[in-house]
Write a structure and sequence with these properties.
It is built from 15 helices and 16 strands. By secondary structure, it is of the alpha+beta class. Helix 13 packs antiparallel against helix 14. It is globular and about 75 Å long.
């Protein structure tokens, strides 16, 4: 914890009202959506400028105080949790869009800009920022970059990494680095920009980002399709992506859908039920696109891969269909789900899912398991729901025992134990599922270069 002298030093670095030590702020800014940790930061600070962040880091190096970055706090792996008396550095006040270049189609913004704010700004310029997910209304660009966020459009547009043209960062020694400066071509050695993308604040803090924009898509249509068997999902994917410009291909189970419907805010897409569903979105690039989609639907029905489906007839209906998938996380949050966010190569999805389904049925006979994910890029979200009668600690222990089985399967298929949620605290001890001992040793060496005192988000990603 901080002593009174150190608290006074923070007041000297920032305006008094931007240093918080009250219990409510410590609680709200000391954790993310992970609910397995008790927040215990010593203070929360709210810088407004790069210079203030650099000054805070230099102070932390002198005082040997650990710092934890805090963005929208929508993470699911404990990457923004402060449990050991750290100082939380919130980027809520660094939320300005600083510059727009219409020729380069780039926008420079501070790290605290909310994802939806950037999306809206791009739309106002007649352009498009394509990285999208359920938390876009609260997640921040700096956090998106620090975790290399993915979301629902990856099958077409890729991860956040694809859209970062430049970064300004503050390292663990308080140095300010300009990385790539928005260049399309810059073949001058090591690209430190990509080291910071996905680094979870362990090398330094992202304070500004130059983000690439693109043209808006053609009008989008959405289909929700009922798939009776897991094996049919990838067959449907292969059929549709060969002839349509897919922007999303999502998957969810009937169990997941029931939780969404129980809230009473959306309706079942069609009368019948199915064990599994896919939601696909595509650009209507010409007048025959929807005819092609309906023809593909008929072909998949004849092949036995589908049993029902619906095609949106308006933007309003498309938004309603998307809610069937996008509202899942919020609808199951009261059940304190234990989440695994895993990925394999798209070609390996069918055999992997078959093997995983057997493991989950065997190991979780008494728990409800909810499946959904971005299956078009090989990413599955497995959510185990906590029974009311079981204490949180006992539930987590039971889930972590099964992790050995699940991650052994991930390793066998050459997959990732964290596809897009990051590693943080929750998955840190499983890093060797995906990374070799040599990889991890080199990662520690990189951290030591940028953060020699180990004060930047310590304990996250690397033990």
């Amino acid at each position: 914890m901080l002593d009174p002298r150190q608290i006074q030093q923070l007041h000297s670095l920032l305006e008094t009202q931007r240093v918080a030590t009250d219990a409510a702020t410590l609680q709200s800014h000391g954790l993310d959506w992970t609910r397995y940790y008790t927040p215990a930061p010593a203070a929360v600070v709210f810088p407004k400028t790069t210079e203030e962040v650099a000054a805070l880091v230099r102070w932390a190096t002198q005082e040997k105080v650990a710092l934890v970055p805090s963005g929208g706090r929508t993470g699911l792996s404990g990457g923004a949790v402060a449990t050991q008396g750290e100082v939380v550095v919130s980027f809520d006040r660094m939320n300005a869009i600083l510059d727009f270049n219409p020729v380069d189609r780039t926008v420079r913004c501070q790290a605290g800009v909310v994802t939806a704010q950037l999306q809206d700004f791009a739309a106002d310029q007649g352009l498009y920022y394509p990285v999208d997910f359920a938390s876009s209304g609260s997640s921040q660009i700096g956090g998106n970059i620090a975790t290399n966020a993915g979301g629902i459009k990856v099958v077409r547009y890729g991860m956040t990494r694809e859209w970062v043209a430049g970064l300004k960062v503050v390292t663990g020694t308080g140095e300010v680095l300009e990385l790539n400066q928005g260049l399309a071509k810059n073949n001058t050695g090591y690209d430190f920009r990509h080291l910071f993308i996905g680094s979870e604040g362990t090398l330094g803090f992202i304070v500004e980002a130059t983000m690439q924009l693109t043209r808006p898509p053609a009008p989008l249509s959405v289909m929700v399709l009922a798939v009776p068997a897991l094996a049919g999902i990838m067959e449907v994917f292969n059929a549709f992506r060969q002839r349509l410009d897919l922007t999303a291909f999502e998957f969810f189970s009937e169990k997941a859908l029931r939780h969404v419907l129980a809230r009473g805010q959306v309706q079942r897409p069609f009368e019948g039920e199915s064990d599994y569903y896919v939601l696909l979105e595509f650009e209507c690039v010409n007048s025959t696109t929807e005819e092609t989609a309906l023809l593909l639907f008929e072909e998949c029905m004849e092949a036995g891969w589908l049993v029902d489906g619906v095609l949106s007839q308006s933007e309003e209906q498309a938004r309603a269909l998307w809610r069937l998938r996008e509202d899942i996380s919020e609808s199951i949050t009261p059940y304190r789900p234990y989440k695994n966010d895993i990925a394999v190569r798209v070609s390996a999805v069918p055999p992997f899912v078959e093997a995983l389904d057997a493991v989950l049925a065997r190991e979780y006979p008494d728990f409800e398991v909810v499946w959904f994910g971005h299956i078009g890029d090989g990413n599955l979200h497995i959510n185990v729901l906590k029974p009311d009668a079981l204490a949180l600690a006992g539930f987590r222990e039971a889930c972590e025992r099964v992790n050995a089985e699940v991650f052994a399967l991930v390793r066998r298929f050459g997959g990732s134990m964290s596809a897009e949620h990051g590693v943080g605290l929750l998955k840190r001890d499983y890093l060797d599922v995906t990374r070799s001992p040599e990889d991890i040793a080199l990662m520690r060496g990189v951290k030591a270069v940028f953060d020699p005192l180990g004060i930047m988000n310590p304990g996250k990603l690397l033990a």
